[in-house]
Every structure is written in structure tokens, then in C-alpha cells.
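INFO batch 0412 | record 1 of 1 | parsing
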Amino acid sequence: MYKKTVLNNGLKIISHSMPSRESVALGIWINVGGRYEKPGNKGIAHFLEHLLFKGTKKYSCRKLKESIEGIGGSLNGFTSEESTCYLVKVPAAHINTGLGILSDMVINPTLPSTEIEKEKTVILEELKMYRDLPQSYVYELLDELLWPDQPLGEPIIGTVESVNNIGRKQLSDFRQKHYTASNIVVSACGNLDYGKLEHAVKEIFSGFKRKKTNIFLAVKEAQGEPRLKVFLKDTEQTHMALGFKSFKRDHPLKHAQGLLHVILGANMSSRLFNELREKRGLAYEIGTIIKRFQDTGAFIVHAGIDNSKVFESIKLILNELNKIKGNMVTDAELKRAKEFYIGQLKLALEDTLEYMLWIGESTLLADKTFSLEEIIAEVNSVDKTAIRKTARKIFNTKNINLSLIGPLKGMEEKIRLSLCQIE
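INFO prediction complete | emitting C-alpha cells
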């Protein structure tokens, strides 16, 4: 179903043909992200991603956008903790234009000094925006608790100090070091001819030399007691992120964790949504999130809570976590969770862009690709015992990390004591 080629210089090409579609989605993935940085250049991967949209030797900044949008396509990019991706979605007939634009951005960026200074201001404003949004900033505070004093616990965007210290030489050196053939995956999904795609990628990247694969600093997981961070702010509601270190990307219980996420907080049928919002009206927003990395992960409960009901809400959340540790989920719950889990994946993979992201990320970070049929079989093999085993491994007092933003002055010790309710 998938076609994959590894070039002599180490660059990987992965594709999935979807001949009934009218579009093609292309991504150039770089094996570098926030956790590959040092304290002095924190945010440089994200900064560089911004700069690659500012022009190349062949295309001006405006021409880059017009070349894609002028054919009805879209151009974008993102930086995560472990990867950087530049992507387009275009009508299938314009696949060569999409590949030409993306590859020129990666290979021939001009990194103009004037744009660097302008973009520095833009990034600093972006940083301030996140700090002003408690529903976003609370996750940054949680990461600091989960992985203190290490790159994974620091914001991808960087700090005011680190961003201000980044100049053209640092950006150029970072690109030269990390944007190498063995650290690149080209992924494509849609109505395409793989032979032509492979030939074009070989021609474009033939000059890229093989170098060492990028290596990040392994995470330090040691934690012996609950951790709490309260950020005092005069908000109308308290924003909460309750995090537990959990499983790495390819852990044998990864699908059991996914189903646990569905049962607890992935939708409006979930236990937490039902208990806190529907039954008691304590929160408008309540749910769970899973973060997966190559050597670690996190299971997060997030909520926006009535300021006067913080302790009641924490107690109820911990009670639900205790219940799913102690008792088997019902047959009906497990069936609904599996249908939701599989159904959401099927719906996402109808889109060429989502499919490209799925196979591109797994090829870059795990050097594996999975068919939908393989995933369905693995999910359906998960039983109730695996769900409880997963909950017991993740939810315990020593593994609790809680960040809160709100008008909570003088309440820190009481909140800290409330965290010991989980068994």
C-alpha cells in the first residue's frame, strides 16, 4: 500500500496513492525540533521554520505564497518538540510546483537579515500572546513540572532572552548542521505517480550529503512526589492542567492508553465530561490529551473550572482516575471507545493532508508505517485488563504534576494536600 525509498544519502521518501482524490499533499520533514536545542538557542528550530517562508534564491517571500495559492493550494509549516515540517496541499496536476516550492525553501533559503529582525519581533509578540492566554500558558507551566531543567520541559517558541540572542549566523549554522539528507523524510499522499515523485526527489536532493542522524538529549524521568505550580492571575475561571508522565510513542500499551483517553476525556460521552460538566456544571471545558515522544509521554487532564469549585473539581477528577484504576471498564464503554478511536482515524485518513502527516511523522520518528488495517486489528485486541493495567501504571501520587492559573492566592498548600487523594 505504501511505497518507500531510501536514497544513497539517507533521505527517505514515503508515499500513499489515493487515485480517487483530486489533491496531493506533500511534506518535507526534518528530524529536528525543540528538544534538540540548547538553553542558549532555545526556540531556534521554530525561528528557522518562520524564516524559510521569507524567501529563497529563486522565490521572493510573496512569490512563494502566490505560487501555491495561485493554483488553489495551501502552504504551511510547523515545529514540534521532535520535528519540523514544511507542507503543501495542491491540486494533483500541480504536484511538481508544490515539490519545487517546498524543496527550494529547505535547500536555498536566503535568511535575509532584515527579515530576521522583523520576524524576531513577530515571534516575541507570539510569545506574549501565549502568555496572555491562560488556557495555553497552563500547558507550558505543566511541561516545566513534567520535565524540569531539560529541553522537553521548555517552550518550543523559546524565551524573550533566547530569541533576542538568535542571529543570522546561528540560524545558518543550525540549518547546516540539522537539515541534512539522513534527517529528511519526503512524504506524499493523494493522486500521484510514485515513479515520477521518486525521480524528482532524487534530482532535487542529489547534492545533499549523508551526515549523522540528529540525536536529542534523553529525558530524565525521576520524580518522587507530587509537583505543583500555581500562577496567580485575576481570571474569571481557573485553568488547570493535570499531567502524568506516561508511555513513549511505540510502547506496547499505546492503544490501551488511547482507549483510556477516549473513556476518560476525549469526547462528550467521556466520564470526566459527564461527571464535571453534565452532572455538576463545574466546568465548561474538560477533557484529556495524550503527548507521545520517542522516549516518554504524558497523559493530561485539562479543564476550565469555576474559581470557587477548584478543590471540588480536583477531588472529582482524582476520584474518576481512582475508579478506572480499581474497576474494569464496562463492555459497552470499551466497545464505544474502540468505535470512536477507529472511526476518528478513518475520518482523518480520508483527507490527503492528514494521511501525509500520519505516514510522514511515523517514518521520521519511528522509521515505521502502519496500515489502517493493522491499527484496527491492534486496537480491537485491547481488552479491559489492559485498560486497567494502563491506568495503574500512569495514575499514582508520585507521578502527579498540576499547573493552575487563576486567583488562588494563599491556597497552594491546600491544593498540594488535595493531590494525595489518588491511591
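INFO post-check: Residues 37 and 151 are 7 Å apart (CA to CA).
INFO record closed
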